[in-house]
Amino acid sequence: MKKILFILLIAPTIIMAQNGSNDEYRARREKVLSMLDTTSAVVLKSVNENPLGIDYVQEHNFYYLTGINSQGNILLISPKGIKVGNKTKKTIIFYNNINDVKEISLGANDTILKSNEFRPIFSKHIALLAKLYYSAPDLILVNDWLSDKAYFMEREMKSRMKALYPKLKLESAEFFVGRLRAIKSLQEINNIKKASDITSDGLISAMKIAKPGIWEYELQAAVEYQFTSQGAMLRGFPSIVGSGLNNLIVHYFDNNCQTKDGDLVVMDVGAKYHGYSSDITRTIPVSGKFTDAQKEIYNMVLKVQKDAIAMAKPGVSTGELERFAVNAFKKYGYDKFYIHGLSHPVGLDVHDVMTEDILKPGMVITIEPGLYFSTNDKDAPDKYKGFGVRIEDTILITENGCEILSSKTPKEIDDIEKFMKKKR
């Protein structure tokens, strides 16, 4: 029996984004069609709520295929074809507001319909499917605290779908569309490069005002002012600004402590520009000068980072890069204090989708080694206890190697110290 693959994407509300041209979005939809056969299916759903004006983030796969960044819309792709009047279409964008789709470039396979037409069309087609890929960001865990019962909405959905359509196989569309998202187009690369430049400006602004006694949130404000003033209205993730013992916490988001003389400050931040994130980390001495012990660890981390970046090229796996970092720190005797991964992909999501381990031209990843010495770790040398160092850059894999997209931000000790001395 043939399998039917069917792609449905539902999006929050529709506004054309700027991560690519309309023709590029249309080409992506055509590529998805070419990856499917007439017996297969996928369904993706948008984020449909934006309460109280909270920053709205579109479902990434829907955004990638339409450039639409608003609520109440659905994208349906079916290689088998969908009867619309006297024509057969393979892609339908169901819109909530006609103004949201006026700029969309429609190909021969595309059409647009009002969102209230989605349900009857989908109900007819789903009965024919053997396999349905889906993306549904609102299928989350809901906890009823009164009855003390947790509801896994995705599990509930699958259970009901199985009861209605016993032969239907459901799979996430994340990795299906992710095969396309992993390799960035020129426009996507330009957006990540712009996000990296803005992030670099934010870090430089924070360096300019850093001094003992400044609060972590003041440094955060300096970083994020550059985001907003340069058109990056969203952050790729909550900014991390950890001073003193706080820099031992990899994902520290409080940013509410006052710095002290002698502190190192780890700033792990990323602007989001036209939907695309950057991710850069710099570790700086708040006083403007590293201590000898801090220099020793900083240079160790920097060497591992530089060597890993030099290794990053097509054909190398992220696993190889990770093993290199572990072994490099092991030679120093400090692998125990390396407590997180070396790399992750970057794109529409700061931890973007990667469907394979082998690097290819057009992939964008981070390289971010770090060492962290807790005050209560008996194995930590006394002179290193109480601080951590992390250095992170966003890099593009090229045909013959890689390009550092975040090179604008100082990271050599001499450059950081000269810069911080000069700004005083």
Give your account of this protein's structure.
With 424 residues, the chain is an alpha+beta fold. It has ten helices and 20 strands. The strands form six sheets. Strands 1, 2, 3, 4, 5, 6 and 9 form a seven-stranded mixed sheet that branches. Helix 6 (186-209) runs antiparallel to helix 7 and helix 8 runs antiparallel to helix 9. The model is unreliable at 1-8 and 10-19 (pLDDT under 50).
Radius of gyration, CA atoms, in whole angstroms: 24 Å
Give helix and strand order, one letter per element, not per position: EHEHEEEHEEEHEHHHEEEEEEHHEEEEEH
Largest sheet: 7 strands, mixed
DSSP strand count: 20
- Give the DSSP E fraction (strand runs of 2 or more residues): 15-25%
First-last Cα distance: 74 Å
Which stretches are low in confidence, meaning pLDDT under 50 for 5 or more residues running?
Answer: 1-8, 10-19
Estimated structural class? alpha+beta
Helix content: 25-40%
Average pLDDT figure: 89
How many helices?
10
Tertiary shape: elongated
Please name the defining characteristics of this protein.
single chain; alpha+beta; seven-stranded mixed beta sheet; three-stranded antiparallel beta sheet; 32% helix
In short:
The protein is α+β, with helices and mostly antiparallel strands and 424 residues long. It has helices at residues 22-35, 60-66, 118-126, 153-164, 174-181, 186-209, 216-229, 292-311, 318-332, 413-423; strands spanning 5-13, 42-44, 72-84, 87-95, 110-114, 131-135, 141-144, 149-152, 169-172, 234-235, 240-243, 264-269, 271-273, 276-277, 280-285, 364-367, 370-373, 387-390, 393-397, 402-404. A hairpin with a 4-residue loop joins strand 7 and strand 8 (149-152).
